[in-house]
Amino acid sequence: MIWQNIKNAFLSIRSAKLRSALTAVGVMIGVFAVLVMVGVGDGVKAEIESQISNLGTNVLTITSGKLNQSASSSDPKEQKGSGINIASGIGTSTLTEDDVKTIENTPNVSRSAAFGIISSSVAKDQIVSNSAFVIATTPSYFDIRQLKTSQGSFFSADDNSGSKFVAVIGADTKQSLFGGEDPIGKSISLRGKQFRVLGVIEKSDAGVSLGANADDIVIIPINSAIKLTGKNDVFRVIAEVDSEKNIEKVKASLEQSIGSNHSGADDFSVLTQKELLTTFSSILDILTTFVVAIAAISLLVGGIGIMNIMLVTVSERTKEIGIRKAMGATFGNIMGQFLTESIIISLIGGVIGVLASYLAGMVIAKLANITPVYSPIALISALGASLFIGVVFGTAPAIKAARKHPIQALKSL
Amino acid sequence: MEKSKPEIVIELTKLAKRYDDEAGVYDALKKVELKVRAGEFLAVMGPSGSGKSTLMNIIGLLDRPTQGNYLLDGVDTNTLSDKDLAKLRRDRIGFIFQNFNLLPRLSIMQNVELPLIYQKIRTAERKRRVREVLSEVGILDKIDSKPNRVSGGQVQRAAIARALINKPSLILADEPTGNLDTKTGLGIMELLKKLNNDGVTIVLVTHNPELSHYASRIVEVRDGLLSEKEVRK
Ligand SMILES: Nc1ncnc2c1ncn2[C@@H]1O[C@H](COP(=O)(O)OP(=O)(O)O)[C@@H](O)[C@H]1O
Ligand SMILES: [Mg+2]
User: Which of A39, A48, A172, A297 could lock A215 by a disulfide, CB 3.0 to 4.6 Å apart?
Assistant: First the structure.
């Protein structure tokens, strides 16, 4: 019977090729949109994971605000809360100059770099860039982040202690402000003050991460920033530990010592790379879920398309239903026949959507710096969703078909 | 079979059918009484609009009476569910319509096997039985043709094959020759006569008195009432 229904479905799909194709396109677009969004989300996640792990597993990040890490924390006290407070990374920082000194002086910390984020546009003559990310930090930042220059050099400890107005810029920032021109020794302005460009950072292979372009960046000495803005907001401190073995020990000691600096207030976090990764991943998961939910609406629209066409099909084929009933088809037989048809149309759309999303993935990988990742689970879910759509939106038309009175159906047309 | 009169296939008592729709109320059948015995060839005659098709649809379990009783093989059909009726149509009744009612998208083979599909009979067995009935009605060579590729007489022969395929005890033919020329129509009647001689009970609707000669008994429907006309043999 199922086999007969499938044969019948293909027969009637073939007899109305264009209409069936257009109906399947609705589901196809939905599956395509969802898969591409999930694929890009997973691709970005994989990218960030590789970036963060490139930073080295012996790096700790000390950040203002409380980021709960119940998933990875071994501390039972922290396991009561989960998730993250996105706002905690923004606004007034709770980290102080004292904390920076404490971190520097902690045993097994080989070097550390505090950095703040300056909100300012960057200009060169008439050209203004609002996209560049302005960071204020110490020279050890370059070492810990393992940055290299393609031109010129980084600023020195003397530049920092002397609060010199100097800057190191990213490859994309250089391109947008200077084009082909040599930027070394030229000036850019931040908040109306002129900063001399000392060096250009080698283009990273990181590309876009979390909406920030790692190559569109301006780095200035932290003391110069204090002179510029009149305040010292430490956004984060990154600390390199001499050996990976000591990571947990240093983390515990920092939590203890910074905690006593803050008189016990729970307003900062010491995160390992792994924890940082989890934090970013969960932010990304929220974003992905949101975008996928929107994409899923198109799947819904595809389903409504199927229902619409199946209702038309049922009324066009009323006579056929009458004949089949006269030949002994039961309610269930007729229902099964039309339900199979809607499921098959939906699955055809789903399969094509999966293939199209693969092609789109290849195109995206070529054009953007992201390689979409398609997990088997996503593919199976996509086909499962098409099946589900076929059932849900095919049921009402199938019931309508199966309910038809044999005589009225036979007399139709 | 365990019921009172096993040799009686159809028994209608005080059967009435009222159509009640937007257009108004119409009593198509009023208190119809009829008994049909196994092996009979019954011709139902009467003017157009007298209620012959209405009667056939009720006998064929495609519609229900609004009043009265219909016993099929001694079973009161009023007590049966729609699903039971569908199964009886599938297993016990063969239909032949004036306008053939084959599915145009399906081949003759696929049309004829339809009742067997609903009986969940296996493909090989279905194929065998389709060939058997198609050769019985004389159109085995058209097995793979679409209905629109063969003549009207051949389409009706395919429809008869479809009515025969489930080996029904009752064949209902509602003006089966109405859309055929006289010569072709007579061929179809000969075929029905042959089936009747093989023991199948046939109820035929016709308004052609010449065709009624094939029947063993003639009844007439007029103004929703049924009366006996003639019994032969
Ligand atoms: N579904 C229906 N609704 C309303 N009236 C109907 C319906 N079917 C048949 N009738 C009416 O019932 C009468 C009998 O119809 P029918 O049984 O088809 O007659 P016959 O087959 O003898 O020509 C006709 O007057 C017809 O108009
Ligand atoms: Mg009629």
Answer: A172
Judge whether A53 lies within some domain. no
A contacts of B166 (beta carbons < 8 Å): 328
- Name the residue at shortest CA distance from atom 27 of ligand 1: B49
Q: Please, which pLDDT band fits residue A349 given cuts at 50, 70 and 90?
A: very high
Q: Is the domain of A77 the same as that of A196?
A: yes
Q: Which two tokens stand for residue B227?
A: 């009366």
* Average pLDDT along chain B: 93
- Structural domain contains residue A276: no
Look up residue A9 and give its two tokens. Answer: 């479905």
At B169-206, the pLDDT tens digits run 899 999 999 998 999 999 999 999 999 999 999 999 99
Is residue A339 one of the residues assigned to a domain?
yes
B164 to chain A nearest CA, in Å?
Answer: 11
Which H helix or E strand runs over A390?
Answer: helix A376-403
Q: Is residue B204 part of a domain?
A: yes
Is B73 part of a structural domain of the chain? yes
Residues of A with CB under 8 A from a CB of B: 1, 4, 11-12, 15, 319-320, 322-333, 405-407, 410
Among A222, A239, A271, identify where a domain stops. Answer: A271
- What does the pLDDT read at residue A116? 85
Pairing of the two strands A166-169 and A217-221: antiparallel
Q: Do B105 and A12 touch (CB under 8 A)?
A: yes
Among A223, A245, A271, residue at a domain's last position = A271
Spacing, Cα B41 to ligand 1 middle (Å): 24
According to DSSP, residue A234 is labeled: B
> Per the structure, how many domains does chain B have?
1
Containing domain of residue A105, as a range?
Answer: 58-271
CA-to-CA distance for B155 and B152, rounded, in angstroms?
5
Looking at residue B71, which CATH number applies to its domain?
Answer: 3.40.50.300
The interface predicted TM-score (ipTM) is 0.94
- Chain A, nearest residue to B122 by Cα: A1
Range of the domain at B172: 8-231
Angle at B193 between CA B11 and CA B3, to 5 degrees: 25
pLDDT at B233: 60
The rounded distance, in Å, linking the Cα atoms of B190 and B181 is 14
- The reply to whether A264 and A306 lie within a common domain is no
